[in-house]
């Protein structure tokens, strides 16, 4: 490394972190504050997790000043990225970190839910394990409460531990206003407008589960988070009726299509 | 009418090889040439006849003599004069068509192809072709982590063109997803339609729908693929006539995401607690569903909009033990000339 850094040590400039978070494929990461990185307490235990820990930390904080060959440099560079990721998982559950990730969430930097009924709800990165090298990063949708694989292969190679198993749930505890309204909207497989028997049976069962949950919550006077929260939960058979109407309506639509009334193009 | 059935230069194969058209099957000319299959489409597209000719690679002058042409070419005859030979007129007409109408005909042909396609992929030949594409993972895999890259099917949420773009149906979680590549966001969902996805499941009950798309691509046959290789469908546990292993295998215990904070499950009682578990749930004992189904058989009023496994909505459910030939085609018995569109 040159002595470029030593001259600018006193000025606050995060060359390495700037470079890291703006690199292609690193869009899910936010920038960790200098203060957070230099407080040794925040890095507890990471020295055994990261090879060439001190050099890696120096690189991340732009004070790296070692004369070494390219191979060594590359090894340290790799360690620095790993260290950054591990600190990142801790940082994003701090007040500052949550706020930074919230900004990215609002911009949909983590992508949008691929589930059609979620209507492009923004996603949050998450890990299925807090230990590195176990599972790659996944994306959580707070609308359907499920997890999805990143679309791009450059994201699906990122370690899930760099985001951890808790961040995407903590953010909604800290910012409850962010919790999206939950919806009943779902896909119902149909053939010429008619519901298919086996899936329809499963769907009925699932709706039973959902209604049971809503009854439990109502009993405890806990907000269910569904959009019709003010309304009373109807007895189970009324929804069944609703679905049947839908089925009939769809059959009609189908017939209408075949009649071919509309001239367009 | 057409001289060759499978030349690489045909309009159909060039349409299907366009970027973003990867989901389309190549409709057989036989299907298009059967007027019955086109019932009702004449009024759906502009310049229908020309569009149809374009799809079939028919030279326009071949049917100059046909009566339908005259009304569409009103102006030409008087301008050109009656003394001109019909051959000359045809050439002029072609030139005229090239100059001004070609783009209209082209977009009409695409619309018409899409509308025929919606019907074709629900025919025996069409669904067979789509199954080959499915096996080759041409339609991609489910983005849901717990579906473990099971293959998806292209579907529409509407049968009416212009309403929505093509989506991907995952048989493993019974949900629909936006295709990952934006090039599919210009493909009309009506060109695949609402019926194909579910019809596919009923038509090929012997498919192991939980098989990963990646396994197919890499030719890597994991233990699961071998273990569940379909040999005798009758031996399998059935749920309402469907192989139990094929009813939403991506759902239920072990396939549901459970929110946790520092290793502890987030309680339902929390404001931010889980509310959508039902959407990804499935009874651990699938017979629970059979019982529910029996209830509905006993109360037929409540099931009359259900499609039974035999594909006849108005008939009562038939015994699930009824054996089917493993590759005997569709239990739905949808024929190109069937009554689906009457
Ligand atoms: Zn979602």
Description:
- The complex is a heterodimer of chains A (265) and B (342).
- Chain A is mainly alpha-helical and 265 residues long.
- Chain A has two domains: 15-178, N-terminal domain of TfIIb; 183-227, no CATH class.
- Helix content of chain A is 45%, strand content 6%.
- Chain A has ten helices and five strands; from the N terminus they run H-H-H-H-H-H-E-E-E-H-H-E-E-H-H.
- Chain A has helices at 4-8, 15-22, 34-38, 53-60, 70-91, 95-106, 153-156, 167-174, 197-219, 236-259, and strands at 123-126, 138-141, 146-148, 190-191, 194-196.
- Chain A has a three-stranded antiparallel beta sheet with strand order 1-2-3, with no helix packed on it. Chain A has a two-stranded antiparallel sheet with strand order 4-5.
- In chain A, strand 4 and strand 5 (194-196) form a beta hairpin.
- Chain A is elongated, with a radius of gyration of 25 Å.
- The relative contact order of chain A is 0.09.
- Mean pLDDT of chain A is 85; it is low at 1-11 and 230-265.
- Chain B is mainly alpha-helical.
- Among the domains of chain B are: 9-61 and 96-121, protein kinase ck2 holoenzyme, chain C, domain 1 (Orthogonal Bundle), CATH 1.10.1820.10; 137-215 and 239-299, Single Sheet (N-terminal domain of TfIIb).
- Chain B has a three-stranded antiparallel beta sheet with strand order 1-2-3, with no helix packed on it. A two-stranded antiparallel sheet of chain B has the order 4-5. Chain B has a two-stranded antiparallel ribbon with strand order 6-7.
- In chain B, helix 3 crosses helix 6.
- Chain B is elongated.
- The two termini of chain B are 26 Å apart.
- Chains A and B meet through strand 3, helix 8, strand 4, strand 5 and helix 9 of A and helix 6, strand 3, helix 8, strand 6 and helix 11 of B.
- Strand 5 of chain A pairs parallel with strand 8 of chain B, so a sheet runs across the interface.
- The structure holds zinc ion.
């Amino acid at each position: 490394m040159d002595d470029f850094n030593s001259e600018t040590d006193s000025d606050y400039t995060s060359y390495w972190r700037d470079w890291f978070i703006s690199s292609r494929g690193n869009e899910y990461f936010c920038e960790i504050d200098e203060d957070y990185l230099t407080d040794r307490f925040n890095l507890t235990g990471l020295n055994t997790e990261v090879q060439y820990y001190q050099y890696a930390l120096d690189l991340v904080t732009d004070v790296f000043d070692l004369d070494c060959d390219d191979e060594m440099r590359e090894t340290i560079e790799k360690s620095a990225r790993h260290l950054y990721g591990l600190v990142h998982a801790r940082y994003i559950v701090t007040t500052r970190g949550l706020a930074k990730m919230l900004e990215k969430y609002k911009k949909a930097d983590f992508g949008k839910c691929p589930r059609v009924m979620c209507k492009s709800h923004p996603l949050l990165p998450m890990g299925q394990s807090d230990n590195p090298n176990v599972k790659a990063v996944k994306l959580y949708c707070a609308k359907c409460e499920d997890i999805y694989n990143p679309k791009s292969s450059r994201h699906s190679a990122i370690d899930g531990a760099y985001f951890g198993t808790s961040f995407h749930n903590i953010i909604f505890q800290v910012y409850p206003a962010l919790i999206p309204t939950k919806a009943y909207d779902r896909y119902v497989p149909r053939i010429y407008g008619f519901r298919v028997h086996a899936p329809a049976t499963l769907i009925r069962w699932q709706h039973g589960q959902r209604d049971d949950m809503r009854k439990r919550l109502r009993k405890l006077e806990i907000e269910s988070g569904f959009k019709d929260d003010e309304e009373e939960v109807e007895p189970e058979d009324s929804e069944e009726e609703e679905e049947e109407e839908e089925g009939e309506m769809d059959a009609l639509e189908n017939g209408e299509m075949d009649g071919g009334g509309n001239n367009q193009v | 009418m057409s001289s060759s059935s499978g030349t690489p230069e045909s309009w159909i194969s060039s349409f299907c090889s366009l970027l973003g058209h990867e989901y389309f099957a190549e409709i057989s000319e036989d299907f298009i040439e059967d007027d019955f299959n086109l019932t009702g489409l004449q009024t759906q597209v502009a310049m229908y006849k020309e569009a149809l000719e374009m799809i079939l690679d028919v030279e326009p002058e071949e049917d100059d003599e046909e009566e339908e042409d005259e009304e569409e070419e009103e102006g030409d005859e008087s301008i050109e004069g009656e003394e001109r030979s019909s051959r000359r007129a045809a050439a002029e007409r072609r030139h005229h068509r090239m100059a001004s109408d070609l783009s209209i005909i082209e977009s009409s042909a695409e619309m018409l192809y899409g509308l025929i396609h919606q019907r074709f992929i629900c025919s025996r030949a069409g669904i067979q072709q789509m199954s080959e594409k499915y096996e080759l993972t041409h339609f991609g895999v489910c983005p849901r982590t717990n579906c473990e890259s099971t293959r998806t099917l292209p579907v529409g949420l509407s049968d009416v063109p212009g309403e929505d773009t093509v989506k991907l149906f995952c048989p493993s979680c019974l949900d629909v997803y936006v295709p990952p590549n934006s090039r599919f966001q210009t493909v009309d969902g009506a060109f695949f339609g609402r019926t194909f996805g579910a019809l596919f499941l009923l038509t090929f009950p012997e498919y192991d729908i939980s098989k990963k798309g990646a396994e197919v691509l890499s030719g890597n046959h994991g233990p699961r693929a071998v273990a569940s290789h379909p040999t005798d469908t009758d031996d399998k546990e059935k749920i309402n006539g469907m192989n139990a292993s094929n009813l939403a295998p991506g759902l239920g215990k072990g396939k549901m995401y459970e929110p946790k904070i520092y290793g502890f499950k987030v309680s339902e009682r929390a404001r931010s607690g889980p509310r959508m578990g039902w959407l990804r749930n499935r009874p651990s004992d699938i017979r629970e569903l059979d019982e529910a189904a029996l209830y509905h058989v006993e109360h037929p009023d409540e099931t009359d909009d259900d499609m039974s496994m035999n594909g006849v909505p108005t008939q009562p459910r038939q015994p699930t033990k009824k054996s089917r030939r493993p590759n005997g085609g569709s239990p739905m018995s949808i024929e190109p000339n069937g009554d689906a569109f009457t």
